[in-house]
Write a structure and sequence with these properties.
The chain has 179 residues and is α/β, with parallel strands linked by helices. The protein has helices at 49-59, 62-67, 80-87, 102-107, 154-165; strands spanning 17-19, 25-27, 37-42, 70-75, 96-97, 112-113, 125-126, 129-133, 139-144. GO terms for molecular function: peroxidase activity.
Length: 179
């Protein structure tokens, strides 16, 4: 059985810097373009049609997220060549970074899978993870799955983030009670 150490809500988001295809370095969890929070979406890789569909759907919520101060970045363990090929299937304007290592996947508490064949991919890959990191570098929201079929509904997530971001609601980070 695999051992895993999940990244807890309320914990500090690990410092992970990866490159985009244009060579720009992005630190996951560090908001850009005037945003104060960042949604970090970890996807399986170009081989996953469900990831492609989910990422394309997320693009439709980019503006609403920007209105509440949340930007988006997507990352995978794919190589630059795999990302370049995948971008031909994506209709997104938020940044993608590549080369997430197994040690970085473990630091994020992601489930890691072994490819079923060489046709799927040529490396171990992370199963889906979604983290919303607040202005303090703290994990505000975390969703980690062990397969491509379980992911947060984007509309529900964005509506929830809008509610959390409203200062009148004074909504704390949930799931932080000690064991």
């Amino acid at each position: 059985m695999a051992y895993t150490n999940k990244l807890a809500a309320g914990s500090e988001f690990p410092a992970i810097t990866l490159n985009a295809l244009d060579g720009t370095a992005h630190t996951l969890g560090k908001p850009r373009d005037g945003a104060t929070w960042q949604m970090v979406v970890i996807y399986r890789g170009r081989h996953c049609p469900m990831c492609t569909r989910y990422l394309n759907q997320l693009e439709g919520f980019k503006e609403k997220l920007a209105e509440i101060g949340v930007d988006i970045i997507a990352a995978s363990g794919d190589s630059s060549e795999q990302l370049e090929e995948h971008l031909t299937k994506l209709e997104v304007s938020f940044p993608f970074v590549y080369g997430l290592s197994e040690d970085q996947m473990k630091a994020l508490g992601l489930w890691i899978s072994i490819p079923r064949s060489e046709q799927e991919t040529d490396h171990h890959f992370a199963e889906p993870g979604l983290f919303v990191v607040n202005e303090h570098g703290t994990v505000q929201v975390v969703d980690i799955s062990n397969n491509p079929f379980v992911r947060p509904d984007i509309e529900t997530l964005v509506n929830g983030l809008s509610w959390i971001r409203n200062p009148d609601n004074n909504y704390p980070i949930r799931g932080t009670a000690p064991y």
